[in-house]
Amino acid sequence: MKQQNFTTSFTVDASPQQVFDAVNNVRAWWSENIEGPTDKLNGEFLYHYQDVHRCKIRITEIQANSKVVWHVLDNHFKFTEDKTEWKNTFIIFEITEKEDKTELKFTHQGLVPSYECYQVCHDAWTHYVQDSLKTLIITGKGQATPKETALDSTMSENEKHQTDTKSIFHRLLIKTPVEIVYQALTTQEGLAGWWTPDTIAKPEVGSISRFTFGPDYFKEMEVIALKPYGLVKWRCIKAFEDWIGTTLTFELEAHQKGCVLLFHHDGWEAYTPEFASCSFDWALFFRSLKFLCETGKGFPYPEFDK
Question: Are residues 25 and 134 in the same domain?
Fold first, then answer.
């Protein structure tokens, strides 16, 4: 059977010129971590995502308002046996006017199911094209990977993991890209989809998120660190007494099958009944998170233990 290249398409209420301009504005829909020109024929640019993925791309074809072609000159994946998957593949954007709308067809020629990276790349490209690029065209704002910055290491003693306290740990593989998992951990819609529907949250350091569980109980978390798409950290400021002052850290790592989540809930004073109950509940909620990311449907409170 002939192997199929990855392809996806969408139609928008926009002109071919608008779609063409958005495609070439790569930092606005794919990643801000790009060096070099992205809109010039024979121009070359470098892309990187942490130490997980980097590649060098040359723009080999630009037809105004109709077609853009990239040639991947070099590639390195951290998580595949063949680090050079993507090398000598072509990324093609075809723009077609259809009545008063415009269709964009995206094809990654050479990205085929036999590649070890295929599934995670399939899901990542789907996110960046169907969500980020399409949103950029419609609203003027995409969902590109933000510029990488060094995480602030000047945390107070209360924020640091103390060796004389107890911690809850969980680790799981979620078969979807880190971008999707990060959204589920930081946006109000995402958190409501796996933890509790009654959620108020925004992905900003210093903001306070509120999570309500039934008529009589809620938790409030201060967002103390965000590193797209690698780290989310909260400090509990309101909840049961055992929770207050504890920190909750979600660390994400790209994997050939998706994303590995390492969670630790630090700062517990003792192995209390609440500690034991909390550890079990986190396992159930992470099952909910995994299902939300992989299938689009989680099991938030009060359905998480059914």
Answer: yes
In the structure encoding, which two tokens stand for residue 132, read together? 């980020």
Cβ neighbours of residue 1 under 8 Å, at least 6 residues apart?
none
Report yes or no on 229 lying in a domain.
yes
Sheet holding 44-49, edge to edge: 6-12, 101-109, 90-98, 67-77, 53-63, 44-49, 34-35
Q: Does residue 305 lie within any of the structural domains?
A: no
The pTM (predicted TM-score) of the whole model is 0.77
Domain of 35, in residue numbers: 6-139
* Element at 92 (helix H, strand E): strand 90-98
The interaxial angle of helices 273-295 and 178-186, nearest 10 deg, is 130
Q: What is the CATH number of the domain that holds 251?
A: 3.30.530.20
**Burial per residue of 280-297, b for 16 or more beta-carbon CB atoms within 10 angstroms, e otherwise:** eebeebbbbbbbbbbeee
The sign of the dihedral angle between the CA atoms of 73, 76, 77, 81 is: positive
Number of domains in the chain: 2
pLDDT digits (tens, 9 = 90+) for 170-179: 999 999 999 9
Rg over alpha carbons for the chain, rounded to the nearest Å, is 21
